[in-house]
Write a structure and sequence with these properties.
Blueprint (H helix, E strand, L loop, with lengths): L2 H10 L26 H14 L3 H11 L9 E7 L2 H4 L6 E7 L3 E7 L40 H4 L4 H8 L17 H18 L2 E8 L6 H5 L3 H8 L7 E6 H12 L6 H27 L8 H10 L1
Parallel strand pairs: 3-4, 4-5
Antiparallel strand pairs: 1-2, 2-3
Amino acid sequence: MDQATRTRLERNIFPAAHQACEPWEKFAWQTKAHLAHSSQAMAIDIFGTIKTSANQDAIMDALAQTLGLPTGGPWDITLEWAARSSLLNEPSPTQVDVYAESPQSIMVFECTLAEPDGGACPQTMKRKGAESCDGNYEENGTQEQDLTGRCVLSDKGIQYWDIIPKAFHLEAEAEYQPCPFAGSSYQWMRKLVVAYKVGRQKNKQPAVVMVYADHSDLSMAQKVKSKAWTLFTETVRQEHVSLHVRSYQEILTLAQKVTHQHSEEPPLWQELREWVERKISAISSDRNSDRKKPPKKRATSSSRMAANRNG
């Protein structure tokens, strides 16, 4: 990492969280982590500050309590955690923004900011010469591609559907049109399946938390209040792996409440709140500016013909 890159990153990460990024050269930085709308940077702002706080265990215990998880530290927080490939036989292991573990509990945090939603299953994106899915979970074997199962990923040996019936009110032997995870729910499914499997292996109670910026102009704030999100959460076996939503603002309020008796820390959390709100406001302003821009004029057929002639 050259000094210019490090400087850009440092400017976009809350100073108290810098220590959580060490060593910077080996940290799993995303390509846009230096930008104000980076959800990775926001995750580090919040959870990196918690990780370096003298009150880390108290804050994480308070958060676990709100999720109905067993409390009691010590807590270990890992930023940019990746599951083992062998956990679900994934060629590209599931990654989570923040993984927190205590002697009795596991918390998996997926942090969003400017993203419109979760990521869709890549198999639904048809590519020439590649195995693809029509978006349904049903038997669709073909001699051409030698697919025999209901899911292309299962045919490749990836074990999501081995765990899905344990984490969701869904059956692997049923057929679904469309597949419950063809769209944006795919990303949330992966986190829940990983959390369930790790929790069972370690005999710890797991929870997945989708963290978002609570602002009316941002898509995820609208998503978590939608009927679609409610319907998705109803498919989750909450008694096996619970799914929650928390805003960055809620987590900061909790941290401030926990640390209010420690005179050296409350100013830090207020500074972090102001830092977070500035980022959110900047994204909102950018969105509003984009909406006010006049739409680009489409070229007429005559102008396109002229351009072709000139070209």
